[in-house]
Amino acid sequence: MATGPPRHRPSLVPGQRTRDVWIAHPEATWHVLEEIDAAGRTLNTVVPPCQPGEDIGTFVLLPDGFYIAWTAAPPMLRGAAPLREPHVARYTSAGHRLWSTPIRLGDLSYPGVVELSEENGWKLQAKRPWTPRGVRSAHHEPLLISGNRVAASFEDTSGLARTFLLDLGTGHTVAVTAPAPGGHKAIADDGGFLIGAQGYGTFETTLLTRDGTATTRARPDPTEHHPVHHHALNLTTPSQRLLQDLHS
Fold it and tell me: What is the DSSP letter of 95?
């Protein structure tokens, strides 16, 4: 199951009306998930518990509940509340929390990220590792589900992102990707994911398997000319095709 724009989700759960949509919006001191039909009528309302200063970064609808990626609310909504750390939580259909997993990006650094400062004479140099503030849900496909795994992606203001591979049932962290520029992501088969990275001179895809194994292949820069290679299209899934490229 995949996510689209973070504030609304079509109701694709078996047995539910497919023209309904779930939306998330803040109230005075809490957040609300609402199911709305095509006529704009509210069919269902869920209020998941949260702390002051938290915001719903994105969410996924499941047959028996929700997955929510919580982030710090923007300053205009946070008020005097503290800056909250992000976390991913699973809820029942009634909004009762089953588990919550804290998300910590750790210190970030990446080749190609540079800085200027007075202390080095305003010379361009690699940026030293920094502690991110204002961590948010990743711009592209921030919350995906494949098999019994959840891929939750978060980024800081530099655009560097990390994907956290979680167990669907317990929230246990199986693996965390290294910091890399954010990119598009896709669901692969058997609990795996394809994690794209683009920016700071990088253009690559990583196959992240359900056990946390990561295999990366650099992709050619689309602005440059490269010869076309023809392959037999006898593989049926994105992860299988990527594996063929990785081993070629």
Answer: S
CB 197 within 8 A of CB 206: yes
pLDDT in tens, 25-45: 877 567 899 999 988 899 999
Which regions of the chain does DSSP assign to beta strands (E)?
8-10, 21-26, 31-36, 42-46, 54-62, 65-72, 87-92, 97-102, 114-115, 125-126, 136-137, 143-146, 149-155, 160-167, 173-176, 180-181, 185-187, 193-199, 202-208, 214-218
- φ and ψ at 245, to 5 degrees? -65, -40
Pairing of strands 97-102, 114-115: unpaired
Q: Among candidates 125, 89, 85, which has minimal Cα distance to 109?
A: 125
Instruction: Please list, residue by residue across 102-122, b when 16 or more beta carbons sit within 10 angstroms of its beta carbon and e when fewer do.
Output: ebebeebebeebeeeeeeeee
Query: CA 115 to CA 166: how far, in whole Å?
Result: 34
- What is the spatial distance between Cα 143 and Cα 161, in angstroms, rounded to a whole number? 13
Give ∠ CA 32-74-161 in degrees, rounded to 5.
100
Give the architecture-level CATH label for domain 138-248: Beta Barrel (2.40)
| CA-to-CA separations, 103 to 36, 121, 155, 199, 208, in angstroms, rounded | 31, 36, 11, 23, 18
Residue 220 has a pLDDT of 59
Mean pLDDT over residues 118-140, rounded?
89
Tell which residue, 151, 162, 154, has the closest CA to residue 192.
Answer: 151
Rounded distance between C-alpha atoms, residue 135 and residue 167, angstroms: 22
